[in-house]
Amino acid sequence: MNNLKKIPAAEFKELRGKNGARHVIDVRTGAEYTACHVQGAKHYPLQDLAPGEVLQGVGGNDEPIYVLCKAGGRAQKAAEVLAPTTTRDIVVVEGGTDACVACGVAVNDTTATVISLERQVRITAGGLVVLGVLLGWFIAPAFYLLSGFVGAGLTFAGMTNTCAMGMLLARMPWNNA
After folding, report:
1. Catalytic pick from 69, 100, 103, 163?
2. Over the stretch 87-104, which tens digit does the pLDDT of each residue have?
3. I need a surface site. Which of 7, 65, 80, 155 has the fewest CB within 10 A?
């Protein structure tokens, strides 16, 4: 995948200023995208990413495709899916939308309050751990397994840089604006 590249948000901003970096996709959830996205970015959620649809949607030329998410992790995954399907450069903007906002890239920002997918995972995982402990204490010790299962899932997610809970939450109705 020699067509897979990364650039810092500041370089992305410079390219945008020179009328470059025209083909930008955002792979966050619908709610995250609606709340704030780089101007002109097209929305292709990671959980529904179809390389053919993306390539058709950004146009038929050979210009690079710039991929954004919140902070860079989902964009990297999306780029790894897209790169083998095209000869075009697939460029991950390091730091994602957060870094773009911080360095002054023009964004469409609404007043909608959206909880990031990462924060939703932390809330859900923490809630399940507390629930497992309470059920184990008050109902039956077997419920402690729920807390253990969540802990094992978080460990696996950290080691493999994947998150099944995040992908599941991304499909929830409140994340599909």
Report:
1. 69
2. 999 999 999 999 999 999
3. 155
